[in-house]
From TrEMBL:
Biological process terms in GO annotation: green leaf volatile biosynthetic process
Name of the protein described by the UniProt record: Uncharacterized protein
Lineage, highest ranks first: Eukaryota, Viridiplantae, Streptophyta, Embryophyta, Tracheophyta
Comp. bias intervals (Polar residues): 183-198
Every HTH myb-type domain range: 9-62, 63-117
DNA sequence: AACATTGACAACCGCGTATTA
DNA sequence: GTAATACGCGGTTGTCAATGT
């Protein structure tokens, strides 16, 4: 049952990579490609490293096409905006920045950019830690019995289905509104001018936030005050999936309305900001 | 010159999810 | 369907050079 046993870590080298190791890894990948499995790569390439370490070294340092130069002001701006929208989803952010790795951006953010922003008084609102979210999720699971776990799995399947339905709803609604709604001028600039107004102005006093899709907005006037920030991120993830779907073309006029109990803010602005960023800088289109 | 501090970045660790037998 | 394993991600730590005292 299961895969063959994992190799022991005993005897494997740790710490900084030598030029010789870099060469061995580069040569191996040049000859056999990346898709041969990181687990078995070190042995085949003659390296005393674990596959994980090899992958990291390749992805963050040796891979051709990496931009290891200093970050430009334009890149700074892009990182700040994407962080505001996506939080510390570094891989997502890196995916929209040509030649930059998630590790690079994360390091730059933690060591330089954040300090720079703090000094300017523009510190973005801190997003929920992804790791903490995971831990909370795990704690819940630990409390659960086997039956609850099973229920969790069932719920997971159900949520997956719901997400697909929601995704389709957003596509339909957004498409239906292309011709109905005029394109908001300079909304991206407005968002930019307000700095992180997506996360700040949309937050309630108790720290909660609310969001909704166009289908919800147009179909009812239900109160969404109790929807929390996680749901906003889920919406953004849906948008993200849509954006990354080659078969789905996203005209800039499409919008999703955003709402909360304090003020009314069009999700369109957020989306448009996001869309503009992706258009200007993405390697995915 | 010696030591302390800071900054930058490489690398590791733990975890969740996907994949596989 | 289940458990073991592989992979990828985010958070954190370690290391080393530059700078300050």
């Amino acid at each position: 049952m299961g895969r063959k046993p994992c190799c022991s870590k005993e005897g494997l080298k740790k710490g900084s990579w030598t030029k010789k190791e870099d060469l061995l890894l580069t040569e191996y990948i040049k000859d056999f490609g990346e898709g041969t499995g990181w687990r078995s790569l070190p042995k085949k390439a003659g390296l005393l490293r674990c596959g994980k370490s090899c992958r990291l070294r390749w992805v963050n340092y040796l891979k051709p096409g990496l931009n290891r130069g200093t970050f430009t002001p334009e890149e700074d701006d892009l990182i700040v905006r994407l962080y505001t929208l996506l939080g510390s989803r570094w891989s997502l952010i890196a995916g929209r920045m040509s030649g930059r790795t998630d590790n690079d951006i994360k390091n730059y953010w933690n060591t330089s950019l954040l300090k720079k922003l703090k000094a300017q008084g523009n510190e973005p609102r801190k997003h929920k830690s992804q790791a903490k979210k995971r831990r909370r999720k795990k704690e819940k699971l630990n409390v659960s019995s086997q039956i609850n776990r099973k229920n969790n799995d069932e719920n997971k399947t159900r949520r997956k289905k719901e997400k697909i339905v929601e995704k389709h709803n957003i596509e339909d609604e957004v498409a239906a509104n292309i011709e109905e709604q005029p394109h908001t001028q300079n909304s991206a600039q407005a968002v930019s001018d307000n700095n992180h107004n997506f996360t700040s102005s949309s937050s309630n006093q108790d720290g909660t936030s609310s969001a909704t899709s166009t289908s919800e907005i147009h179909s009812s006037s239900q109160n969404i005050e109790d929807q929390n920030q996680d749901q906003i991120f889920e919406k953004l993830q849906v948008i993200d999936e849509l954006l990354l779907n080659d078969n789905f073309l996203f005209p800039p006029e499409k919008y999703i309305e955003f709402n909360n109990n304090e003020n009314h803010m069009l999700f369109e602005e957020i989306y448009e900001e996001y869309f503009q960023l992706v258009y200007e800088n993405s390697c995915h289109f």
